Amino acid sequence: MKLSTLQRQIFKPSAVLLLLQLTGAEAQAQPWAQCGGQGWTGSTTCVSGWTCVYSNPYYSQCLEGSAGTTTAITTTRTTTPPGGTTSRTTTSAVQTTSSASSWSGNGSGNTFNNPVLWNDLADLEVIRVGDVYYYSASTMAYSPGAPVLRSYDLVNWEYIGHSVPTLDWSSKYNLANGERAYVKGIWASLFGYRKSTGTFYWGGCIEFGKTYMYTATNPAGPWSKKSTINTCYYDAGLLIDDNDTMYVAYGSSTINVARLTSDGLGQAETRVVWTSPSSIGYIEGARFYKINGNYIIFLTKPANEQWVLKSSSPWGPYTERRLLKDMTPPVSGAGIPHQGGMVSTPSGQWYYMAFIDAYPGGRIPVLAPITWGSDGYPTVNTVNGGWGSSYPYPVTKRPLKAPYGTDTFAGTSLGPEWEWNHNPDTSKYSVNNGLTLSTATVTPDLYAARNTLTHRILGPISIGTIVLNYGNMKDGDRAGFAMFRDQSAWIGISKTGTATRISFVTGINMDSNWNTASTGSEGAGAAISGTKVWLRIRADIRPGGTRTATFSYSTDGSSFNNLGGGLVLKNDWQYFIGYRFGIFNYATKSLGGSVKVDEFSMVLA
Predict the structure, then answer these.
(1) What is the CATH number of domain 405-604?
(2) H or E element at residue 446
(3) What is the pLDDT of residues 574-604, one digit of tens each?
(4) Which of 6-20, 72-86, 553-567 comes out lowest in average pLDDT?
(5) Keyword annotations for this protein (predicted)?
């Protein structure tokens, strides 16, 4: 990727480009893994019986041999302090340890690190078509919904599209006329491929009501809504049997199997096939497979157990066995690996892609090999009794584009990494070598403002920057860059009369019913002149980290001034979606103003 002006300013020559190196608690690197530096979960030593062998200044590897010694690698880093500042602005230099042009994929050599992608991609389903893997995730009220990602090695992923182009099931998804749909919308859904027709299917139950079915012949799209089924396929998994019959397993505690009509768009019949006993309790998250002649329903007991149901018939009877309970996660401070799905490689090896609760960043995917026993049940290949922080690659490593870098909004459409908060007003934005946002809502409330554009934050720590042209703002307009969740803050431009201020606004909160409890207030600010500003957020979304965001701005793109006391990031789960970067422009008095975003950049800190 060609470095933009902004990237050249961010990527200081003195930064050591050791990708994904963090400060944290000591962790053990697994056999053949990179070691001796700062890994995802902290400084790394090798497991017993393996030695950290120095290769070069950038790479050491755990090789079999005498234990207890580690060749250390010293890395010097300079980062923005995690603590906030007062309302006085101070100049801050930012150095980073990542460059999109230097990206060589997850991990080193033939070893990958968990998580495979530190992005909020929950309720996942993963499938293989030939030698290509596809991944689908939930998105609640973000639009377009149900992102589709692609990989050639199960580890390095790229966004390619969305299965749900617009959330058209109810007017509340437009975030208009006082309606809103926070925490509603797309939850765990079915996703699969039917080889006989070359068709991809996505289906989701919306608000415990009907199930909507979408199809595409290309997973990148276009996708089309094809039918409505008057049954809620809650937490559903799709199975296409050897004879091409399509089944869906779904439900919570009471698990049902539905047989679909021949086109896969309607329900032919449905039956209860298994009821969770009191010894197990509540269970959900169904995924459906046929493996070695057995029908397998994969279920989760939120959020610390995974169960396997097995039968010789899709209709049962099913016997159950627990796959895991309270398994140590590969990320410090995160939850137990659970839910997700299983997938095989072309050579017949099986892997389990689970997710872990890693708030405030959300729920992120982790991968581990599994082995099938002669009894027809799987086991997870653990490392020291836990989910490994690294494993050998499932297949030959194939890096894709870096999960960070700069978007200049070239062309006339947004990339598939972007999602709006609710459906956008398409008449109020345009993409043409920059993103123009016209005010779409008159409101003092960020949560009620249409056309807030969001981007997942790459963990563990990222720095996001936008270049904002604000010369066409009107009196009462607010535009800027936000840490967006049910407790939010932003840095941006406030226009009041003829006065223009750079503002840090905090205390923006929702209540437990996802209604706005507070629209926030300016915690710090100053007069600003000109028409262009660089807005920056440094976000530490590690569950075991500082969980803070700091905010800064620049008028020249080089020297950044801290503003405000920062934001402590909530790490509870009830909102489900993790923090995102948000770009917004709304009016508090009247419509008619606009801003242009020249570029967005995200780099690892």
Answers:
(1) 2.60.120.200
(2) none
(3) 999 999 999 999 999 999 999 999 999 999 9
(4) 72-86
(5) Glycosidase, Hydrolase, Signal
Report the largest interatomic distance among the alpha carbons of the chain, rounded to a whole angstrom.
76
The reply to whether the predicted model has a pTM over 0.70 is yes
512-517: Cβ within 8 A, 24+ apart = 512/574, 514/180, 514/182, 514/183, 514/486, 514/575, 515/180, 516/445, 516/447, 516/448
DSSP for residue 9: H
Residue pair 367/352 in contact by the 8 Å Cβ criterion: yes
- How far are the Cα atoms of 439, 495, 501 from residue 589, in angstroms, in the given order? 10, 11, 17
Say if CB 442 and CB 588 are below 8 A apart. yes
pLDDT tens figures, 388-441: 999 999 999 999 999 999 999 999 999 999 999 999 999 999 999 999 999 999
**Size of the chain, expressed as the number of residues it contains:** 605
Q: Which pLDDT score is estimated for 41?
A: 35
Per-residue three-class SS string for 515-584: CEEEEEEEEEEEECCCCEEEEEEEEECCCCCCCEEEEEEECCCCCEEECCCCEECCCCCCCCCCCEEEEE
477 in helix, strand or coil? strand
Written as six digits, the tokens of 152 are 């050639």
> Which residues are paired to 267 by β-bridges?
260
Please tell me the distance from the alpha carbon of residue 495 to that of residue 483, in angstroms, as a whole number. 20
Instruction: State the CB neighbour count (10 A cutoff) for residue 343.
Output: 23
Place of tokens 């402590």: 568
Point out which residues pair with 599 in neighbouring strands: 467
* Domain 123-328 classification at class level: mainly beta
> For residue 560, which amino acid is it?
F
pLDDT at 23 over 70: no
Average pLDDT of 70-98?
35
Sheet of 190-194, strand order: 190-194, 199-205, 211-216, 224-229
CATH 2.115.10.20-classified regions of the chain:
123-328
**Residue range(s) occupied by CATH 2.60.120.200 in the chain:** 405-604
